[in-house]
Automatic annotation (TrEMBL):
It is found in: Cytoplasm. It comes from Dromaius novaehollandiae. Its EC number is 2.7.7.84. Its cofactor is Mg(2+). This is 2'-5' oligoadenylate synthase. It catalyses: 3 ATP = 5'-triphosphoadenylyl-(2'->5')-adenylyl-(2'->5')-adenosine + 2 diphosphate. GO terms for biological process: defense response to virus; innate immune response; negative regulation of viral genome replication. The keyword Nucleotide-binding does not apply. One of its GO terms (cellular component) is nucleoplasm. The lineage of its organism: Eukaryota, Metazoa, Chordata, Craniata, Vertebrata. Its main location: cytoplasm. Residues 161-346 form the 2'-5'-oligoadenylate synthetase domain. Residues 55-104 form the Polymerase nucleotidyl transferase domain. PROSITE patterns: 25A_SYNTH_1, 25A_SYNTH_2, 25A_SYNTH_3. The keyword S-adenosyl-L-methionine does not apply.
Length: 399
């Protein structure tokens, strides 16, 4: 049964039967992830270099890491944090070379590991190595994205507050927003992982809707245009639940209907969180304030304040499909009336204090990437006095 013909009262059943991965699938996915992680840690950078490159940790991101994978949607994101990247600029300059080295080592090792690989073409200034892995132990091929990254969080312990200097150093580089979001994969993952099981089921439903109905609008895109990423819809789903319910047990139909309603009001969206950064630091407060007055929609990545997720995308196409979905059986009550969404505002206004509004007279926010002041502050030293736990130099973990 397709989603649009599923009665609203049966959405939980639809998710369980059609979208929730079964144990066999999850075991196969875990086996494939372990295989590639083992290769990255033990075999990828064994060739001597000066200085030698060490894998500090490998973090499983994407839907596999967040616990929101869809049935028969075999994909995994692996972020490899490397010792050769000393700062953001190192990552930007050298990641393509590292990506090509990883590919070369995979090709050399595949016969020993008894798996087959099919690589996507590596483009200039590539950020990711994408490939399909297949073996006799897998019932289907697994899609992998491997992303090399700078360890900006310095082995941050879960629940430990991020040093504001980490973000200040980032936006003072004046690079495109979200350029280094991979550095904060652990925070992105933990933001979703910490949610109740039913919220993750809601995320699966929204992702399935996006994949099955929204992506068909790709044919309407012109050169350079794109649909908003799934991550934007994940964040919006969390926001809808937080503001509309916050309970572990809720109506799936009402929750789904709320997400669709927010998508139709994309031109008013302003959503952010303060779990990893906030307005307490003056420099960071100035930057965040300018981010939040930019043209809508604004969905600020809770892990990376430079990343307005889905900025410049064709949100109108998503809104069009959301409006259509609201007329389908999955959004209708048993009496034939539309399911009522929760009362969730599309714009958060907590940040609109007097000290924030006064920034409006300044030059256009889109032209700014560094904090405003006179004179402009000098680059921040990479050494911070912010307390953080001490870790061994040769630590290598798979998270």
């Amino acid at each position: 049964m397709e989603l649009y013909s599923t009665p609203s009262k049966q959405l939980d059943k639809f998710i369980y039967e059609k979208l929730q991965p079964d144990r066999v699938f999850l075991e196969q996915l875990q086996h494939a992830v372990h295989m590639i992680c083992e290769f990255l840690r033990e075999s990828c950078f064994v060739v001597a270099s000066a200085p030698p490159t060490r894998v500090l940790k490998v973090v499983k991101g994407g839907s596999a890491g967040k616990g929101t994978a869809l049935k028969e949607n075999s994909d995994a994101d692996l972020v490899v944090f490397l010792s050769c990247f000393k700062d953001y600029e190192d990552q930007r300059k050298n990641r393509e070379e590292i990506i090509r080295e990883i590919q070369q080592r995979l090709v050399e090792c595949k016969k020993q590991r008894h798996f087959e690989l099919e690589f996507d073409v590596i483009r200039p200034n590539a950020r990711v190595l994408s490939f399909q892995l297949s073996s006799r132990t897998l019932s289907e091929s697994i899609s992998f994205d491997v992303l090399p990254a700078y360890d900006a969080l310095d082995h941050l312990v879960s629940g430990y507050k991020v040093d504001p200097m980490v973000y200040i150093q980032l936006f003072q580089k004046c690079l495109p927003g979200g350029e280094f979001s991979t550095c904060f994969t652990e925070l992105q993952r933990d933001f979703i992982v910490s949610r109740p099981t039913k919220v993750k089921s809601l995320i699966r439903l929204v992702k399935h809707w996006y994949k099955s109905y929204v992506r068909q609008h790709k044919q309407m895109l012109r050169n350079g245009e794109s649909l908003p990423p799934k991550y934007a819809l994940e964040l919006l789903t969390v926001y809808a639940w937080e503001e509309g319910s916050g309970e572990t047990n809720f109506s799936m139909a009402e929750a789904f209907r709320t997400v669709l309603e927010l998508l139709q009001h994309y031109q008013q969206l302003c959503v952010y969180w303060t779990v990893n950064y906030n307005f307490s630091n003056e420099t960071l407060r100035s930057y965040l304030s300018r981010q939040l007055i930019k043209s809508r929609p604004v969905i600020l990545d809770p892990a990376d304040p430079t990343n307005i997720v889905g900025n410049g995308s064709r949100w109108d196409l998503v809104a069009k499909e959301a409006e259509k979905c609201c007329r389908q059986q999955c959004c209708m009550s048993s009496s034939g009336t539309p399911v009522r969404p929760w009362n969730v505002p599309p714009e958060q206004t907590h940040w609109k204090r007097k000290d924030v509004r006064r920034l409006n007279y300044l030059r256009p926010a889109e032209d700014l990437c560094c904090p405003l002041s006179a004179p402009q502050p000098a680059p921040v030293s990479p050494i911070s006095t912010f307390p953080r736990p001490q870790w061994s130099e040769d630590l290598c973990t798979v998270l």
